Amino acid sequence: MNPLLSKLQPYPFERLKQLFAGVTPDPAHRPISLGIGEPKHPTPRFIKDALAGSMQELAGYPPTAGDLKLRQSFTGWLETRYSLDLDPATQVLPVNGSREALFSLVQTVIDPTKDGGPPYVVCPNPFYQIYEGAALLSGAQPYYAPSDPKRNFAVDWDSVPVEVWQRTQLVFVCSPGNPTGAVMPLEEWKKLLDLSARHGFVIASDECYSEIYFRDEPPLGGLEAAAKLGRGDFQNLIAFTSLSKRSNVPGMRSGFVAGDAKIIRNFLLYRTYHGSAMSGMVAAASIAAWGDEQHVVENRTAYRAKFAAVTPLLAEVLDVKLPDASFYLWAGVPASWNGDDAAFAKALYAQYNVTVLPGSYLARESGGFNPGRGRVRMALVAETAECLEAAERIVRFVRGAS
User: Fold this and answer.
1) Whether 273 and 305 share a structural domain
2) Residue 274 belongs to a domain with what CATH number?
3) Residues 202 and 304 grouped into a single domain
């Protein structure tokens, strides 16, 4: 067996399952889960129709690069959303959801044979767990750059030592962030792009929450930032996006990557052997989804109404505020819990049958502390009424425990 598998830590949801083992929640309350970031809003009918109307595609093998019409749907959306002009032949590729692509890109980029010891993959802390697993299984060493709550959970890139940057081959950016919802501003992008130019590392920009936001101005994308900074060749920059959250189709596993043509070319070579072509049925439904913005506006409007109703209620008892974007609330537990987010989540589940994810499960201890400790992540993915009921139970729980 691959010895690197032994380096993988249990996934957060497995840890949550272990935390709740032996706990029987109060049967007076029906279960409500805010634990998993799985969209629950209805899938638009026109996407289902496009999928069902393309069953003839099952008769042939799909091309790994996708056909031109599919790739043009990606570049058309990038032009609409970010005013970018990318080449559909060389600067975009279809992927089976951003999770699959994030993992496989690392295997394409990392060269563990370079002199000077194992290469580094730098990622935010807390972070989406695929970043760590992909790094470890590539033979690289993760380096955790903490998010700073005093700066709206912006990643503290300045905390990364020069000697780490010198051995870094890839950096993960998640903007809007999971779990914090923070959006990286242009000055932070400049800092990171300058570091990439100096040290030669690749930037993987995970942007799967880009279309769920709460301010008038949409979140800045990585490719958009590079273009604004005069780096229109997107050297060493790849952006990842997905239909799962934008269009409420997590089961379709559809997204695309865009950016540096050289990296795209090598990524296509890897994917040709990896066997990760997008189904023709999924491609047809994806073209329909990327070509329509009305359902995205309606989805965003629904999230805005939900967060406007739930956030003030929870803010009465928890350290929480409206994020920049995404569908998570990143809430600090009351001081009476002494930062024990796991104990808070377990007691809430036992007494009120509401599931939240301990923040410490989404982070790693680094520099003597775990930046997720004392917080919980709440995924407000269900309909408003269910999320409100969960919030009301949380308020009663906190007030009863204080």
Assistant:
1) no
2) 3.40.640.10
3) no
- Kindly report, residue by residue over 106-141, the tens digit of the pLDDT: 999 999 988 778 999 999 999 999 999 999 999 999
315-356 confidence digits (pLDDT tens)? 999 999 999 999 999 999 999 999 999 999 999 999 999 999
Structure tokens at 294: 């009305």
Distance between CA atoms of 196 and 157, rounded to whole angstroms? 12
Distance CA 264, CA 150 (A): 37
Please determine, for residue 150, whether its predicted confidence score (pLDDT) is greater than 90.
Answer: no
Under the phi-then-psi rule, with left for phi > 0, alpha for psi from -120 to 50, and beta for the rest, what region is 374? left
Closest CA to 34 of 394, 343, 337, 319: 394
For residue 242, give both structure tokens: 């997905």
Q: Decide if 259 contacts 238 (C-beta within 8 A).
A: yes
Q: What is the DSSP string of 231-299?
A: -TT-TTEEEEEEHHHHHT-GGG--EEEEE-HHHHHHHHHHHHHHT-PPPHHHHHHHHHHHT--HHHHHH
- Say which residue the tokens 């069902």 belong to: 52
Mean local confidence (pLDDT), 234-246:
98
284 and 299 in one domain?
A: no
Residue 171 belongs to what H/E stretch?
Answer: strand 168-174
> Residue 241's beta-bridge partner residues?
256
Distance (Å, whole) CA 107 – CA 270: 9
- pLDDT tier at 402, thresholds 50, 70, 90: low
Q: Which of 246, 382, 222, 223 is nearest to 326 (CA)?
A: 246
For the whole model, what pTM was predicted? Answer: 0.97
DSSP letters for 8-27: PPPPHHHHHHHHHTT----T
